[in-house]
């Protein structure tokens, strides 16, 4: 039992209703997929760690610069037991095997080499490493040198192949 008033209200609602846009079946809204992709990207960037000691293998060098050892402070890096390295000076004397003591001895050795240089001062450091020395150990030594000596122009790395 509809009344004329109910019909008038229904007609008025139909006049104010916005027409719905019909979508094609082949059109797809990819906005949620893009949102999820960006959320995952942000998650992985925030959760990842940038640790230079976890670098993989370093490619073989084909050529290098010719650097004179007499113009450089030279440190030899040889593998020890486990992750330990044996550091030695140009004259063959070994540095301590304790990492904290190594840091102070490296700084002392390079300071001495820079001061005793005759004529032009030594402004570069050469690290001679065995091919079995881990990259993280070489990076650790470079960081010690870089933090202690801001005026050193360059640190050169040479790898001895077996």
UniProtKB/TrEMBL annotation:
<feature type="transmembrane region" description="Helical">
    <location>
        <begin position="30"/>
        <end position="47"/>
    </location>
</feature>
<keyword id="KW-0813">Transport</keyword>
<dbReference type="GO" id="GO:0005886">
    <property type="term" value="C:plasma membrane"/>
</dbReference>
<dbReference type="GO" id="GO:0015031">
    <property type="term" value="P:protein transport"/>
</dbReference>
<keyword id="KW-0812">Transmembrane</keyword>
<keyword id="KW-0472">Membrane</keyword>
<comment type="similarity">
    <text>Belongs to the ExbD/TolR family.</text>
</comment>
<keyword id="KW-1133">Transmembrane helix</keyword>
<keyword id="KW-1003">Cell membrane</keyword>
<dbReference type="Pfam" id="PF02472">
    <property type="entry name" value="ExbD"/>
</dbReference>
<dbReference type="GO" id="GO:0022857">
    <property type="term" value="F:transmembrane transporter activity"/>
</dbReference>
<protein>
    <submittedName>
        <fullName>Biopolymer transport protein ExbD/TolR</fullName>
    </submittedName>
</protein>
<keyword id="KW-0653">Protein transport</keyword>
<dbReference type="InterPro" id="IPR003400">
    <property type="entry name" value="ExbD"/>
</dbReference>
């Amino acid at each position: 039992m509809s009344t004329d008033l109910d019909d008038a209200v229904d007609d008025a609602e139909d006049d104010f209703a916005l027409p719905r846009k019909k979508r094609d079946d082949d059109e797809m809204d990819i906005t949620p997929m893009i949102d999820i992709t960006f959320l995952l990207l942000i998650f992985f960037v925030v959760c990842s760690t940038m640790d230079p000691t976890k670098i993989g293998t370093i490619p073989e060098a084909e050529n290098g610069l010719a650097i004179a050892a007499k113009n450089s402070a030279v440190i030899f890096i040889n593998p020890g037991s486990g992750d330990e390295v044996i550091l030695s000076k140009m004259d063959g004397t070994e540095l301590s095997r304790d990492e904290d003591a190594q840091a102070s001895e490296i700084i002392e050795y390079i300071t001495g080499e820079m001061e005793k240089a005759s004529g032009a001062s030594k402004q570069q450091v050469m690290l001679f490493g065995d091919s079995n020395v881990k990259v993280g150990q070489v990076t650790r030594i470079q960081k010690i040198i870089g933090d202690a000596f801001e005026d050193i122009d360059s640190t050169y790395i040479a790898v001895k192949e077996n």
